[in-house]
Structures are given as C-alpha cells and as structure tokens.
Amino acid sequence: MGLALLAGLMIAGALPPWGWWPLAVLGIGLWGWLLIDLEWRSRVLVGAVVGLSHFVVALAWVPEFTAPGYPVLVLLETTFWTVASLGVRGRWAPLGLAGALTLAEAARYNSPFEGLPLAGVDLGQAGGPLLHAARLGGGYAVTLAAGLLGAALALAVVRRWAAVGPAVVAVLLPLSGFLLPDGSQTGEPLRVAVVQGGGPVGFRGVNTDFGEVLDRHLEATATIRPESVDLVLWPENAVTVDRELLVAHPYRELLQAMNRTGAAFVVGVVEDAGPESFWNRAYLLDPAASDPEFVTKAIRVPFGEYIPSRSFVDRLVDLSAIPSEAVPGHGPGILRSHAGNFAVSISYEVLFGERSREAVNLGGQVVLVPTNAASFKRTQVPGQELAAARLRAVETGRWVLQAAPTGYSAVVDQRGVVRQRTGISEQRVLRDEVPRRSGSTPFLVTGPWPTLCGAVVLLLLSAMTVRRRRDGTSGDTPAATP
Predict the structure, then answer these.
(1) Residue 433 DSSP SS3
(2) Percentage of the chain exceeding pLDDT 90
(3) What are φ and ψ of residue 477, in 5° steps?
(4) What is the DSSP string of 323-360?
(5) How confident is the model at residue 308 (pLDDT cuts 50, 70, 90)?
(6) Is 83 exposed, middle or buried (0-12, 13-18, 19+ CB in 10 A)?
(7) Do 388 and 363 meet the contact criterion of CB atoms below 8 Å apart?
(8) Whole-angstrom Cα distance, residue 331 to residue 451?
(9) pLDDT: is 199 or 473 the higher one?
C-alpha cells in the first residue's frame, strides 16, 4: 500500500505547477507492477490507494470553493481509477493497465455532469516529448503513450523482454505525431496582442469590482500603438454588463479602443440572461463589420457556473457564492472576421479537445482561449489550463492564444511550445506575429476513436493472456511457486 501511495503521488507530481513529467510514467509503471498476478480484492485496494493519493493532491484547489465537495469529488474521481485497476489481471497486467487507464480517463473526462478533464495524465505530459502523440489521437493518445511506457518499465523489471513491444509503440506514437503533417500557413501572419489586466487573485465573482477589472484592461490596451496589431484578445469575464451589450457603457469604451488601434477585438463578456441566469460569451468587435458577433460558452463548469440538482444541493451547502447560473450556448465556437477565422474555447472548454476540433474543422485558423482563473489562489488550475492549451495546439496544428485577467496568458505555437507567458497578477500585453493556418492533422480527421479502440484491444489482449492453473481456475489467484 505504501508503494501504491507513492505511485499516485508520482503521477500527481507530473501535473502543473510541478511539471515533472517522467514521474507519471514511473508512477504508472509502479502501479502496473503492483497489479501483476494480484487477486481482485487486492487490485481494488491498489487502484483506490493510487487514485486517492493522486486526486487528493491534484484537486487540492477544490477546498477554496467547497470544503464539503472536496472529499466527494476526490472519491468520485478515484472510482474511475479503481475500476481501471480492477479490470486488469494476470502477468500482463501492466499492459492491460495502459488500455484501462486510457478508457478510465475518457470516461472521467465525459461524466458525470459533462466530465472533469482536470488532473488528467495527459496534462502532466504537456512539458514532455509524449505531448506530440496528441496529433494522432488527442490527449487520450498521450495518456496511452504514457501508459505503454510505464508498462514497458514494469514488464522489464520482471524480466519479460516482450516489454520491448510496448516501449516501441510508446516511442512511435509521439514520433509519428511529430513527423506527420500539421497543416500549413495561410496568407500573411496575424499581428496579435493578448491583454492581461492584472490584479489580485483569490476573489470570487460576487466579491469582484467589475469596474476595476474593466479599467485595468483598458489601461493595458492603451499601451498598444495604433495600427500596430490586427487582433486584440481580452480575457473571459473582462466585461460584465446587466443590459444588452449594444447599449452598455463598456461597449462604447471598447469601440473607442477598437477605433484607436484599428484592430478586431475578441472580448469575454458576462451578460444577464434573466433574474437568476447569465450568458458567458466571447464577442467579436470588428471594425469592418457593422454588428458584433459572439459565441456563447457551451460547456459549463459544474458547481461553478451551474449547480446540478440545485434545489437539493442548496439544502446541504451554502450556494450564496453562485447566485445565478450560466445558460449554455449551442453550435460551434467559431468567429469570422476580416483578420481571420478564430476557433474559440472559453475557459473550461479548453480542457475538451472536441470543442476546438469542431471549430477548426469549420475553418478556424487560430485557436482563442479567453479564460478567467482569478478566483484561484493556487497556480494548479491556471497551469493545467495552459497545459491543455498546449495539447489543443498540437491536436489541431494551430497556434493558441490564451488571455486571462490575472494569468496565465500565453502564446503557444502549433508544436505546443509556449513562446510567451505572463506571470500571475501582473499587467502585461503579449505581442506576437501568429501564422493563420489551414489543413488537417490526424486528430482533426478521426478524433480520439482510433486511440480508444487501441486501448480496448490492449485490455482484451491482456485478458487473453491471463495464466490459468492446470485445474482450469482463473489467473486471479497467483500460481504456486515451483
């Protein structure tokens, strides 16, 4: 159990803000080694300890928002890894774990309440060479590559030299992703400015002075020279209005900034949608267009932007910090302007590869991520959002621009390299020349399905090789030592 605890902590250590990506491979390898020839009760116990130790650390930011929800969320997420551990057995358990963990992460990323893609294995690999596997099958391919490399280590320890097979596949996945086409540049580069207004962190929306937030971003934008940029990106929640944007005072100030710079603006706006609801939108203000376009955030943060079963939960915990709920948007997140076509993933949506994939396949040339992590005192969530932006860049073959009011704002190229990044709380404008890109990647064509099918095959192969005793009993019980 001590080794299982260590395995979970090692996988957590790969995540931002630590980012020691080899630890996840070693942790998964240790986990798989522990499972070799274990009976089912022990496999459950090992999986539970690995999951608990990982998620207790990886979700340490949750108590800032809900202390009662922290243990519930940790136990819920641990369940997926426990089931993955239970599902593999026999002498080839490490190989089965690579497939089972990939499938468990896919399930965790999509359920319940649309999933929780934070604290994932793939996010811990954004700073390492396995990142390039994302071009083949998204974040799931990165998880599978890490699992296969861990399996190879575990099998090598017990001198099963067939471990060279998983090792070769684990190397080929990112190598192929690196070498395969990722699209091409279209037209002239886009001159961009990513604006971060700065300010304190650790404040919830109900305690925020939205006028100060707006002023800080206008102040930073004032440093942009006229006609020096084509696109200005502001963060999520940079503007909050209680009436239609077209007649709101902040809109007039934004128009003045747009006219002064001559650039298109993409701005995160919160608008009232009724007494107890709001829209979270990204508006495109284009000097070449008469009316603004917008996309509405479609994937909401459960227990952050809306409360599932609110009437029941309200009896158990104080919901005063979330007095209203976001109304989900529909359709792809794409904005079209004279400066180019932009795939937009608003904040939490950057963690979902399918959101950016859909918009890029409809013509998105650059991925924009207006986000807001100002409520977090720790850097875990901002760091993991930036890791997700790197995954989206590699998956789509597009540059990613991320803007946050207090950080991290960043410019990421199509290879997942962070070219520029702000610090927490600082006021800063990132300027760069960003290629508008077109063309496809394997992930844009197929999505994650080939990877998930490969994970199923690994799980089945592992099950088929379970040792059986001469009397025909299952390999769940270790064979007697000769």
Answers:
(1) strand
(2) 66
(3) -100, 130
(4) -SEEPP--S--EEEETTEEEEE--GGGGG-HHHHHHHH
(5) confident
(6) middle
(7) no
(8) 26
(9) 199
